[in-house]
Amino acid sequence: MTRIARWLSASALALLATIVLLPQPASAAAGNLPCGSDCLAQSLDAVCWEKEWCAVKVVVKGTVPAAGFVLSYRTADGTASAPGDYVAVPSGELSVTGEGVTQLRVFVAGDAVRERDETFAVEFVDREGRVLGTSTVTVRDHAAH
C-alpha cells in the first residue's frame, strides 16, 4: 500500500509541475479590449524578425459601433529595449471599423549582435493611461535561427 501511495504522490507532483511550468497560450497573455456593448476585441501576441515591420493583430468579434472605435496604445520595454531593438511608440491610435482582424505596425530594429529571442510589449491603454490589454512581441534574430 505504501508503494502505491508513493507512486500516486509522485504522479500528482509531476502533473502539478507540468501544469505550472507549461507556458501560457497567447490568448491568456493577451487581453480583451472594450469596443462596445456587443463587441469584443482581443489583442494577440506576435513573433517578428529584426529589421522588419511587424504586425500586431487585434481580432474584433461582434457588432462594432457604427462610428467604429479607437484603441490607444504604446510600447514598453521588456528584454528588448528601444531604440536598439525596436522603435518605441510612446503614444499611438488604431482606428477600428467593421468586424474581423485589424492590425497596428511596429518597426523592429536590428543590430550586429547575435542574440536570443527578446520581447517587448504593446500596451492598449485607456484615456488615463491604464493598461487594458497587452500584446507581447517576440523579436527573433535571423543570425541566431
Automatic annotation (TrEMBL):
One Gene Ontology CC term in the entry: membrane
Name of one Pfam family that matches: Calx-beta
Recorded superkingdom? Bacteria
Sorted alphabetically, which InterPro entries does this protein's record hold?
Answer: CalX-like_sf, Calx_beta
Q: Give the keywords, sorted.
A: Calcium, Repeat, Signal
Q: Does the keyword Lyase apply?
A: no
Determine if Cytoplasm is one of this entry's keywords: no
Signal peptide start and end residues: 1-28
Q: Its GO biological process terms?
A: cell communication
Q: Where is the Calx-beta domain?
A: 56-126
Name of the protein:
Calx-beta domain-containing protein
